[in-house]
Hints:
It contains 11 helices and 10 strands. By secondary structure, the chain is an alpha/beta fold. The chain has a domain at 20-156 and 228-254.
Amino acid sequence: MFSRLFGRKTPEAPPTTQGRLAYAVGDIHGRLDAFDALLHVIAQDVLVSQPSQQPMLILLGDYVDRGPASAQVIDAILRLQTEPAFEVRALKGNHEEALLQFRDEPGFGQTWVEHGGSATLASYGVQPPATRTDPEAWETARRAFREALPEAHKAFFEDLEIMITLGDYAFVHAGVRPGVPLERQVERDLLWIRAEFLQSTAKFEKIIVHGHTPMEEPQIIPGRRIGVDTGAYATGLLTAVRLDDSGARILQARAVRSAA
Ligand SMILES: [Mn+2]
């Protein structure tokens, strides 16, 4: 009788995080002010939640470019990694890929600055070339950037993850290619994909938690995906999703001084 009672399938069982409390944070893009504000909101939530295990803080990538404090955001993440409050896991975004590409290829600088790289260079105290088409000036800037990049930052950028899984969730920067198993996904798609992923109706293996494509409102599409990029570099509004075995809930914070 009990087996019949308990064996009954719950029709709407929420997806599981295997008992963990986890927070996934959207694209920070150099907005240390918004990141600090959101960390405060998350810390308050942890206090109320009283998790039995260390909560996870999953950062969805695009820490640098566009906003004014890229290097300082990396410092803040490195500091969090030394503290016991969270298990910090950091994903690689396409902007971290661009930073590493410029470090190795000065010719890429011209493309990088079109996507916000000047702000990153400035945050490391490096002046981008006045003439963007001058290869020698770019080589000079690249050398200066390599010298300005602290060893810990270099290791941070090189060791970023491309996918994190937890229970029924998979965390990536941009999305996944529909129809391809998670274990066969390629880095290029995980860091860059947009429309093919966002517009897909194919079934994904897990619920995909992602950033990369800014939206006015975070998106929770039950059983499919959760998008939390709210364009913090322009809006000052940074978004996280809080996940545990009871489901998903959005947490947000706005920087005190918004650029919008
Ligand atoms: Mn991105």
